[in-house]
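Archive entry. Fields below.
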Amino acid sequence: MRIIVDAMGGDHAPAAPLEGAVRAVRELGVQIVLCGDEKQINAIAREQGYSMDGIEIMHTEEVITMHDTPTDIVKAKENSSMAMGLKALREGKGDAFVSAGNSGALLVGATMLTRRIKGIQRPAMAPILPTADGHAILMDAGANVECRPEMLLQFAMMGSVYMEKVMGIKEPKVGLINNGSEECKGRALEQQTYALLKNSDLHFYGNIEAREVPSGNCQVLVTDGFTGNVVLKLYEGLGSFFAKKVKAMFTGIGKIGALFIMNKLRTFRDSMDYKKVGGAVLLGIAYPVIKGHGSSDGGAMFHAIRQAKTCVDGKVVETITEALAAQKLRSRQQSES
Amino acid sequence: MRIIVDAMGGDHAPAAPLEGAVRAVRELGVQIVLCGDEKQINAIAREQGYSMDGIEIMHTEEVITMHDTPTDIVKAKENSSMAMGLKALREGKGDAFVSAGNSGALLVGATMLTRRIKGIQRPAMAPILPTADGHAILMDAGANVECRPEMLLQFAMMGSVYMEKVMGIKEPKVGLINNGSEECKGRALEQQTYALLKNSDLHFYGNIEAREVPSGNCQVLVTDGFTGNVVLKLYEGLGSFFAKKVKAMFTGIGKIGALFIMNKLRTFRDSMDYKKVGGAVLLGIAYPVIKGHGSSDGGAMFHAIRQAKTCVDGKVVETITEALAAQKLRSRQQSES
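PREDICTED_STRUCTURE:
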């Protein structure tokens, strides 16, 4: 298996992507195509004494930064490491793509340069949230600010496939994020999506209020990209807010006690760290595309590459394609009957 | 000052509203009109040995429950304690109203039976969220699922008045909840609201991402009622999720250590407890209306009554009315120039 990695994306590029790639070759037995500046990459490899076995460098000179507008990837920055990597993916030079760079550019690039799965209306950017007893995928967390009910139905299906194939959850429960649990709740979007989900063959839990999101009652959380973005970022913001509050609680309790508590807190923070689960997955693209967090270190890049490998192993794209065909057949039968 | 209290609203009615009322008379020097079942109220008062000085009972027999639909308050349940209290408020029999009952019914009742401030398009249900260094008011948290930009501008103004007059914050900063900090971000609603806020005389901070909400950078958080509901409920849900996680971290560490930590955790939980700040305020109604949490105990009801008193003392309704007039004048001058 060959994973294409954007060596120039993220705050710690190219050191972090390179470190993740070296570790992935050694521990996962994959091959890596690193898109980026050959000189910079080789300098770090020499400095760190990395073996470059299993790693091929695809030399690129341009870089999409966080300040570029998303559409630059198909215009001014069409030769950037991210653009070249996505084109290589489309040409079959790799099985999946990983980048910790500009999310908007990755979304535009994946859609325009790699292309969607046929029949998918819009791809979704889907992070994995920690819950009381596991994880939940959030569909969509920002790719599509305005959504139609049919898009949300596809998000629910793609999220279910991911949780089953990659996270190993049998019959994942799908919850529609809403301002109440009753069927009549929400805007027109939620009311119409409710009807679609109820009639689908997914494991529909019903509406889920935001209060219940961390409970783990649903493993697939469906919402539009605006609301999903608020959920994701509040998860992040409140996580560090609470960690700081708890830390402040225990100041001035003596050195040994503090050490003990700080260790406990670190374990807690780690359990909340979505970087350990990998990055966000861009679902709906014809190949697995993983978006690592901008602040990814070598370890986080390694986990993102492992996540890409699990997507390939689990045939996520193939299963979504089959599910789409089944869904189409089903709705044709329904309209005929 | 006379505060009208719905004695039959909330999970612990009428005991909790009565306890709150008795304490409010004693500690705040207000008079209370309790709407509810006289027999039940008097039985508890006797049992608890409460002095009923300063408390007048307005006998009602019907009760709006959590299962009633909001519009029942003007139909089948027009003689309920909540409806009768809101009508009494309109008739000037009290200066403010407090209820821990059905939120939807309270919203409909306050709008239909008590009436809005003239010129306010829609009232907003506004809870107070704890932040790193204080509190922020969330406008709107569920009253208006779909909003227009002009409504959000009014929410911003009303929230600013509340934070200044009731919470004592000078020049509170107004943040528009959005999926990015740049001016161009969001849906049409956010883009148009941004322009209105930028041209207003409020202290506009700009867009605020949900990640930044707990930071305390803004004291007035503006959004539509659907998104606000998600923010409020995720705050609640993640709060208890983190508290449980932290508690679990410290199990099996011996009795004295556990006691020490549980005490610390209680302090933490209390600092996160919005019930201590009172309830959510329904802004835009011609009198102060406070919605206590459904699970309010006597203490929470007391704090909600105190909050109602502070609204009256701070002339919140009068200030909103003046600000509306100034806003109108300002926009007339702008369109003329």
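CURATOR_NOTE: Chain A touches chain B through 42 residues (CB under 8 Å).
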